């Protein structure tokens, strides 16, 4: 089953954007996420609509951060992506006639709901500034070892 990696990819891109001044083109961001620039534009449009990034057209234009990283959480970015499914597992049938399957679905649904609530709560506790601070610490130790960000 294919995993939805957009949240991870967008967080990666946002951290790169936070480390450098100046705009990033959709093509540059697409290379960083190993995807098509059209996909980037679609994803970034959702972030722009919520005020997290802005875009400038024309020569020298591109995407830039437009937010305070300490005020944007993983949950905010997750919502900007349209709240993709958090779990890759689910019920065999959503409206079963079988009483056994109804009991199984009820138990699984409670567990899924609890797991999603916990994950979303944790997403709400982690800001982009916290990720950026972690990156700076990791980058500092890599520089001492003579390694690059993507080594």
How would you concisely characterize the structure shown here?
The protein has 151 residues and is mostly helical. The chain is built from six helices and two strands, in the order αααββααα. A hairpin with a 5-residue loop joins strand 1 and strand 2.
Question: What would you say this structure looks like, in words?
Answer:
This protein has 151 residues and is mainly alpha-helical. It is built from 6 helices and 2 strands. The protein has a two-stranded antiparallel ribbon with strand order 1-2. A hairpin with a 5-residue loop joins strand 1 (53-56) and strand 2. Helix 1 packs across helix 6, helix 2 (26-33) crosses helix 3 and helix 4 (74-80) packs across helix 5. The longest helix has 27 residues, at 99-125. It is elongated and about 60 Å long. The model has no long low-confidence stretch (mean pLDDT 90).
Q: What's the structural blueprint in terms of helices and strands?
A:
Elements: H1 6-19, H2 26-33, H3 37-49, E1 53-56, E2 62-65, H4 74-80, H5 99-125, H6 128-145
Antiparallel strand pairs: 1-2
């Amino acid at each position: 089953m294919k995993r939805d990696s957009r949240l991870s990819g967008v967080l990666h891109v946002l951290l790169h954007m936070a480390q450098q001044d100046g705009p990033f083109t959709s093509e540059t961001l697409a290379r960083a996420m190993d995807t098509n620039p059209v996909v980037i534009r679609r994803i970034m449009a959702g972030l722009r609509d919520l005020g997290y990034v802005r875009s400038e057209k024309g020569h020298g234009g591109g995407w830039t951060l437009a937010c305070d990283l300490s005020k944007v959480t993983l949950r905010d970015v997750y919502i900007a992506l349209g709240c993709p499914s958090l779990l890759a597992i689910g019920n065999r049938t959503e409206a079963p006639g079988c009483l056994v399957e109804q009991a199984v679905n009820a138990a699984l649904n409670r567990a899924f709901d609890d797991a999603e609530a916990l994950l979303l709560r944790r997403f709400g506790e982690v800001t982009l500034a916290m990720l950026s601070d972690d990156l700076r610490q990791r980058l500092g130790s890599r520089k001492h070892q003579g390694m690059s960000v993507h080594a």
